[in-house]
Specification:
Layout: H1 14-39, H2 41-50, E1 52-58, E2 65-66, E3 72-85, H3 88-92, H4 94-107, E4 118-120, E5 126-128, H5 135-148, H6 151-159, H7 169-181, H8 184-194, H9 208-218, H10 223-230, H11 236-253, E6 259-266, H12 268-276, E7 284-293, H13 301-304, E8 307-309, H14 315-320, E9 329-331, H15 334-338, H16 340-343, E10 348-354, E11 360-367, E12 374-377, H17 381-400, E13 408-415, E14 421-427, H18 433-436, H19 443-450, H20 454-465, H21 471-474, H22 497-500, H23 510-520, E15 529-531, E16 534-535, E17 545-546, E18 554-556, H24 558-564, H25 567-580, H26 592-597, H27 624-645, E19 647-648, E20 652-653, H28 667-684, H29 696-713, H30 715-723, H31 730-756, H32 759-764, H33 775-786, E21 790-792, E22 797-801, E23 807-810, E24 815-818, H34 823-838, H35 843-849, E25 857-863, H36 868-874, E26 879-886, E27 893-900, H37 910-919, H38 921-927, H39 931-934, H40 936-943, H41 956-959, H42 974-977, E28 986-987
Parallel strand pairs: 2-12
Antiparallel strand pairs: 1-10, 1-28, 2-3, 3-6, 3-7, 4-5, 8-9, 10-11, 12-22, 13-14, 13-27, 15-18, 16-17, 19-20, 21-24, 22-23, 25-26, 26-27
Helix pairs in contact: 6-7, 8-10, 17-37, 23-25, 23-34, 24-34, 27-28, 27-31, 28-29, 29-31, 37-40
Length: about 1000
């Protein structure tokens, strides 16, 4: 029997209920999210903007720079600026807003902030403009510029697609090389595409659909294609202006700031116009910002330096130090750079709520900014003015008299008993105000400072000087197609010639030779020589040397030798020093050992610095080790032309043998050539030691195998054999290698003799040979001589103070060396230098100083740097150098001046008189109350000095702002205009 059991009803799982509930909840959430993020996106985004919080950074003013008497050399002035903050509303209206801002600025003669190194000229040509005066520096800046904007990313993807981890140095260099292949035009196209400039083509009041459609159209278009379409409606200059602002926004975003400066240093009227229209200019604000200001313009510009934007190559290091690389300015040279950490202020700012237009609705928190510390210089404004004005006048006078190439110069005046610099001038000058607002540096000024037109200058130089060298010889075009200044003929405003320019001292070195000769006992104060004009010695073989005038001076002691600048006497002094000290390589340093103690160079391993706080170069005096090093370094290159010509001094003739660097050489050949040249160098570096080569044959045998290897590996050498009618074979190679090795060995012997020759110290005795020093070194040497042998550490800074005047650090005189010059030695030298200025035979100096109320000791120096053939070729003349100190019996200050191509040392002495009149003005008027009326130079350079502004130093914020500083109280101030100024840049 079959029984049918009833089916049980299936029970609902409790989990099923849970799943249903969860599904309903998730569905509700998704629906709500869709509602909030899509349908109500704009409404809620606007609400978010209304309540967004921003940090408005407030720029802190830099500390002041004062002269020794409290006159303000560098300060700050408050100026109006326009800033832009990105919000949803301001982004939508970006182009319309910018068009209005550009229009207002143009109508009022204002410039917008343009720091973009990618420029467009009046003909529409796109090019880079970097603030650097060397090609290597420009390359570095260009690479950094392109990397900052992401141009390296596509290159890296293509080259190293599957690579993980960091790139090697070689890979980075490869990317950099590829970046340099990207032209300025292609970079411009990239930015057009990157910054979505196609949106310029959107109509007013565009819809979302229109925006989407246009975005789709240009998604795969190239930057050039986008630009071509834009150029149908806009000029390329207009397009670039938008790129400038877009680029500033992007660069600022890296630092976390959403505010960028659109225009700096605008006048009050322009600020008022913008303020009236703020409701129609979303994102725009009017702010007050401190701007660096130099009341005396070019005065002491080489000392003070200037401020500028942070370059791309420096951005990383300054970001780590807390700088905003998109807006902050830093000291680039001089005191501004050397004391950047002291001068920079401490930023403050305000945390605020802003609305959709970027306007502040509520202030939440304020952090005060603090001015930087002040730097007080040792420079005296009035003496500095006299130095600069007289130097410029003298250079212009020489030019008017036919010395067209006399276009550079420097002068340094130092306190004899402290080492403090009283005046330092470097011509040509520059105005640091040109850089205080980067966007206001004109193209003309930029080119003058950093990108000179060498073709135009070179053509004019050749015409005015009669140089025999051609434009392409003197200003050759390099591999990049850029014309260069091969012989450093162009006057550079941005180079401090006083601390960085090397000058041969010429006869201004003779007092030091006298010190060495007298103190070592090689000569005495009463010793005389019969100066017949032409000098020779058994120690210098058949070589003869002569006086500058090519005539003799008769019986001459040290005093007369200085008075008439007798080369003969100092040649003789130098050779006597050499003989007295052993007539060996150590004796070659007989003068150097004294020069080092006077700060003219430094012994190996010793400090090579005057101690000054700003950047300096440091020249070296002739000495055996340095001379040997110099000739050894150059030897591996000087032998190359002779070997390539197949003829060494008409003594060795051979098939041309090439060891110069050629990029197409195989690695093996490159290595062999390098090894041979390094062998030559290392062999010469052993001259004067126990390891020096003992014989010509010995050295020839040591290199013959390397010479053979080069011959066997070099295809070019084999071609030379064929051209000489010789068949390449082992026999021929062996014969030629022997001749070449002997020629190189003979070269080594000749160079070794030149390195050890006593003629070097003889030429050193009159300031020639390898001697080259900065004007600062020379001034310090003269100060050391004047005070009897105490060499002080040079200082151009007196102290550092806080904004409240508290002294933070003082720089007191510091003795670096003490040379006990006997009184009779010092007196003999001073007497000779006194005669330089009181002898009628020295007409220029006599006219300047013979009747000067204060006795001045001096020495001229007509310093040659080459042969007459070199002068004619380059269109140059000798340096005009002059040293002096005063008063002679109780010296207070010492001076060195130089005029490049000034032709005669006396042509530089005029500047010294102006400095002495400014420094000793009170003494001169005490001696003769009518002195001012009897001296035209006193009237021009002392009476005509710019007025003091030290009375305003205490109230600097009010006294030095040229009408923009009194914003709270003067007519038309920001308060009266009701402009709620904000400070600085904004950060989220």
């Amino acid at each position: 029997m079959i029984v049918n059991k009833p089916k049980k009803k299936k029970k609902n799982s409790r989990y099923s209920v849970l799943y249903i509930i969860m599904f309903i909840i998730m569905g509700t959430i998704v629906a709500k999210l869709l509602y909030l993020q899509v349908y109500k996106h704009d409404d809620y985004k606007e609400k978010a903007d209304v309540s967004s919080t921003k940090f408005l950074s407030e720029e802190a003013p830099r500390g002041n720079i004062y002269d020794s008497d409290g006159n303000v050399i560098a300060t700050n002035k408050q100026t109006y600026a326009l800033t832009y903050m990105e919000t949803v509303e301001s982004t939508k209206a970006f182009y319309k807003t910018m068009d209005k801002i550009f229009e207002i600025l143009e109508e009022n003669g204002e410039e917008f902030q343009d720091d973009l190194a990618l420029k467009v000229d009046e003909n529409g040509k796109i090019y880079f403009q970097f603030k650097a005066d060397s090609e290597s520096a420009k390359r570095t800046l260009e690479i950094r510029f392109k990397r900052d904007r992401g141009l390296n990313e596509d290159i890296e993807k293509k080259l190293f697609e599957d690579q993980e981890g960091d790139y090697t140095d070689d890979q980075i260099n490869e990317v950099n090389d590829r970046l340099m292949e990207i032209s300025a035009e292609d970079t411009f196209y990239y930015l057009v595409k990157s910054y979505d400039l196609y949106k310029l083509l959107l109509p007013d009041g565009y819809t979302t659909d229109q925006a989407s459609e246009l975005a789709k159209k240009y998604k795969n278009a190239t930057g050039k294609e986008v630009l071509d379409d834009l150029l149908k409606e806009y000029s390329i200059q207009d397009i670039r202006r938008y790129i400038v602002i877009k680029d500033a926004i992007k660069m600022g975003s890296f630092s976390g700031y959403s505010n960028i400066t659109i225009a700096n240093n605008i006048n009050r009227d322009t600020a008022f116009i913008v303020y009236q229209q703020l409701n129609d200019l979303p994102g725009i604000n009017v702010t007050l910002k401190p701007v660096r200001y130099y009341p005396y313009g070019t005065l002491a510009s080489a000392v003070v330096g200037y401020v500028s934007t942070i370059s791309s190559s420096q951005s990383e290091s300054y970001e780590l130090r807390g700088y905003d690389v998109s807006t902050d300015l830093i000291g680039v040279s001089g005191i501004e750079s050397a004391f950047e950490d002291q001068l920079k202020g401490t930023k403050g700012g305000t945390t605020v709520k802003v609305n959709s237009q970027g306007r502040t609705t509520e202030e939440l928190f304020k952090l005060e900014s603090y001015q930087g510390n002040n730097v007080h210089l040792t420079i005296d404004k009035d003496v500095q003015y006299a130095a600069q004005a007289a130097l410029e006048d003298q250079i212009l006078t020489l030019q008017s008299e036919g010395l067209a190439s006399a276009n550079r110069g420097a002068v340094v005046a130092i306190e004899v008993n402290t080492g403090r610099v009283i005046a330092m001038a470097s011509y040509p000058y520059f105005d640091p105000n040109d850089f205080a607002i980067p966007s206001e540096l004109t193209t003309e000024k930029y080119n003058e400072y950093f990108n000179p037109d060498y073709e135009s200058f070179g053509t004019q130089h050749i015409q005015s000087t009669g140089a025999t060298g051609t434009l392409d010889e003197l200003f050759p075009v390099n591999d990049d197609g850029v014309r260069t200044d091969k012989y450093d003929l162009y006057p550079r405003s941005m180079l401090n010639y006083a601390t960085q320019g090397f000058v041969p001292p010429g006869s201004t070195f003779k007092p030091l030779t006298a010190v060495a000769g007298l103190m070592d006992g090689a000569i005495s104060e009463t010793d005389t020589v019969n100066d017949v004009g032409i000098w020779s010695s058994e120690y210098t073989g058949s070589q003869t040397l002569e006086n500058f005038q090519k005539t003799g001076h008769g019986i001459t002691d040290v005093r007369k030798a200085l008075e008439v600048s007798s080369n003969y006497f100092f040649y003789e002094t130098a050779i006597r020093l050499y003989i007295k000290n052993g007539a060996d390589v150590n004796a070659l340093d007989s003068i150097a050992r004294y020069a080092w103690r006077f700060g003219l160079g430094a012994e190996q391993g010793k400090s090579a610095s005057t101690g000054i706080q700003i950047y300096e170069n440091f020249g070296q005096t002739y000495n055996f080790v340095s001379w040997r090093k110099s000739l050894s370094e150059n030897a591996k290159y000087t032998i190359v032309p002779a070997l390539e010509a197949g003829n060494y001094e008409n003594s060795y003739f051979f098939v041309p043998f090439d060891i110069k660097d050629i990029s197409t050489d195989s690695d093996e050949l490159k290595t062999l050539k390098t090894n041979l040249k390094n062998n030559i160098k290392e062999t010469l570096l052993k001259v004067g030691t126990n390891e020096q080569v003992s014989g010509q044959t010995e050295y020839a045998n040591s290199i013959i195998d390397t010479v053979k290897e080069i011959m066997n590996v070099s295809d070019r050498y084999k071609e030379n054999l064929a051209n000489a009618g010789l068949e390449y074979s082992e026999k021929v190679v062996n014969e030629q290698a022997k001749i070449v090795s002997n020629a190189i060995s003979y070269f080594i012997v000749n160079q070794s003799s030149e390195i050890r020759s006593p003629i070097n110290i003889v030429q050193d005795g009159i300031g020639q040979s390898m001697n080259a020093f900065t004007p600062l070194q020379m001034a310090n040497y003269v100060a050391t001589l004047a005070n009897g042998g105490t060499r002080y550490k040079v200082s151009i800074v007196d102290k550092i103070t806080s904004p409240d005047g508290e002294v933070i650090q003082e720089y007191t005189p510091e003795v670096l060396d003490q040379i006990d010059i006997p009184a009779d030695v010092l007196q003999a030298i001073k007497e000779g230098m006194r005669r330089v200025n009181t002898s009628p035979s020295n007409a220029t100096n006599y006219a300047l100083f013979a009747n000067f109320p204060i006795e001045v000791a001096g020495k001229t120096g007509t310093a040659d740097f080459g042969t007459q053939e070199q002068y004619d070729y380059q269109g140059r003349k000798a340096y005009a150098n002059y040293i002096s100190f005063a008063p002679m019996d109780n010296p207070k200050i010492a001076i060195f001046s130089t005029i490049y191509d000034g032709n005669r040392g006396a042509n530089s002495a005029f500047v010294h008189k102006a400095i002495y009149e400014a420094y000793f003005k009170d003494e001169l008027l005490q001696i003769n109350p009518n002195y001012a009326s009897t001296s035209a130079t006193f009237q021009k350079y002392v009476v005509g000095a710019p007025a003091d502004n030290k009375q305003g130093a205490e109230a600097d914020k009010e006294a030095t702002n040229e009408g923009t500083q009194d914003l709270g109280t003067t007519e038309g101030s920001s308060q009266e205009l009701n402009i709620p100024v904000e400070s600085g840049t904004g950060a989220d």
